[in-house]
Amino acid sequence: MDAILHNLGLGFEVALQPVNLMWLVIGGLLGTIIGMLPGLGPATGVAVLIPLTYGMNPATALITMASVYYGAMFGGSRASIMINTPGDASAIVSCFDGYPMAKQGRAGSALATSAIASFVGGIVGMVFLIFFTAPVAEMALKFGPAEKFSLMLFALTATITLSEGSVVKGFLAMGFGFMLATIGIDGQSGAIRFTMGIEALQDGIDFLVIMIGFYAIAEVFKNFSSLDLRYDVDAKSIGRVWMTGEDFKRSWKPILRGGPLGFFIGVLPGAGGTIATFLSYAIEKSFSRKPEEFGKGAVEGLAGPESANNACSCGALVPLLTLGIPGSGTAAVMLGALMMLGVRPGPILFEQHPEIAWGVIASMLAGNIVLLLINLPLAVPLVQLLKTPQRIMLPMIVGLAYMGTYFLNYANFDFVLVSVSALGGYMLSRLSIPIPPLVLALILGGMTEQAFRNSLTIANGSPMIFVTQPISLAFLVLAAISLIYALKRHRKLTQV
Amino acid sequence: MTKNLTAGILAVVLGIAYLIGAFMVPVYEAGDQIGPRAFPFLVAAIVIVSGGILVAKDLRAPERVPFTWGFSSDPVLWLRILAIMVLGIAYGLALDTLGYLIATFLFMVGVCSLINARKHGQNLLIAAIFSLVTFVVFAVVLNLSLPRGLLGDVLPF
């Protein structure tokens, strides 16, 4: 406990520095705006704002990116409530009851409920984060190559089985990610692999370039089919942005239930806000005495999932900070940006740079307060931004994405890579091939292969090493369980 | 063609190409005993097998929903995508010579005209504001190095 308080003290010292507070406010505000834009979610937000973090020290950079992340989570629900168009998949559930509330003239109450529930969820998530990260990081320090390989295999399998879509397509996406990861000079033997004679590929593919292509430009391509959609937002009908006594009485329990639920789902690799919000919605519906009101403006159906969603983004930071394994697409982008700045998240981060790890954790308290302050009084002017036509917003996202690509390595070839990956990302989404397993495999590919080869070398080529080490075996069993569960669920769905 | 069949065939083709590439990876005496080919072989197997399963499952499926990319039914969409890709690559090539401000302005005029056609005044304004604001934020406020190009001696900061 003493150690935690000491670390937290150090964290607050970092988080409360004026420059970090300033970036927290800027990041939160920009995140809210991008999260709010229809069709664009937190991963896009972090991807296009990466250039902002260059030149920052790593602690400030991580604090800024985290604030963009949960800012986008706050913002995502604004669009769901006002125009029934979720910013990303984790904001879908907020449409179910948030939009009916707005249509009944309770938009102000819905906006306030969503902001307050997100705030409480964020705080609950932060408290859990404080107590969870250190023990996990300590345990992870003891992992050898066999444990690391099995852990990554589990993370990948969980991402495949928990993300939407077919399991086979998930494996396919993982394979594509590994393919991209193996391009370039092999670190262990010096052999040049899969460069097709292109010199620029010898150093391997910078996965941030691919992610900007996937999460920023391909998202714009997807929106091309809805360029002329105009959203009407009647600011006068919003009313006072505050929760009524009745709303509060009905919401506090769902909010408190949503927090821990969201956090633990967020910790699982690949299980992002979508699962957390849908599960919270289902739970609140089953707890409710009036389940028939769900979908028609029940405030519980908005409050629980909003809290779960924000707590989930805290949970996703646990594997990112302690194991170096991103728990969501957004966390993956953050990992990439941190590696650019020379910081490798993982258990050693807590030993070597406690100020970064604890600084970002402490900043979440300040960040959530800032976001509550942004989202309650400024709710009405902010939602006016929803009126901005797609035809004006989308070119700017494209511009930011290409500009961000340039800042990564100042390399002309990256413009080719980002364009091709945007096309690739768009085509994959047309084929319903999930992106998260691909991105995770691309990021973890190098480490996975290294752990695989080191383990086999230690064991003189025998793959038995993965099952004779108890922790490694445990991860493999978990991977198998998640796979069996997914296949059973799939069979059930196809039978109905 | 259905979606799964398209995805499956694509995967098998890519997987085989990757496998051939893996056989061409040189193996040196030095380095670890497992070598640089083992992992790619495993990856190729995953992709080819997953693709094969998709194809096999699709051919046995009772209901098959046809899928098209829409190259002929929605050519504007694909032309727009292609044009943005080309503009992006050209932007990358022009940045160092023209400098950030000019290249970004031209790039944004192009992108805006593709997405927001026929509103020339609006597009010029967006492109000008975008390139100026980002230049000030990144080069002046955040102090990142940006190519000045043709305007090298003219810029006051």
Describe this structure as you would to a colleague.
The complex is a heterodimer of chains A (496) and B (157). Chain A has 496 residues and is mainly alpha-helical. Chain A has 21 helices and 2 strands. The N and C termini of chain A lie far apart (51 Å). Chain B has 2 domains: 3-60; 75-151, no CATH class. With 157 residues, chain B is mostly helical. In chain B, α1 (3-23) packs antiparallel against α2 (38-60), α3 (75-98) runs antiparallel to α4 (100-115) and α4 runs antiparallel to α5. Chain B starts with a helix and ends in a 16-residue tail after the last helix. Chains A and B meet through α7, β2, α17, α18 and α19 of A and α1, α2, α3, α4 and α5 of B.
Q: In a nutshell, what does this entry contain?
A:
The complex is a heterodimer of chains A (496) and B (157). Chain A is mostly helical and 496 residues long. Helix content of chain A is 73%, strand content 1%.
List keywords for this structure.
heterodimer, A: two-stranded antiparallel ribbon, 21 helices, B: 157 residues, mainly alpha, 2 domains
Helix share bin of chain B: 55-70%
Order of helices and strands of chain B: HHHHH
Number of strands of chain A: 2
Average pLDDT level of chain B: 91
Whole-angstrom Rg of chain B: 24 Å
Q: Order of strands side by side in the largest beta sheet of chain A?
A: 1-2
**Beta-strand fraction estimate of chain B:** under 5%
The SS-based structural class of chain A is mainly alpha
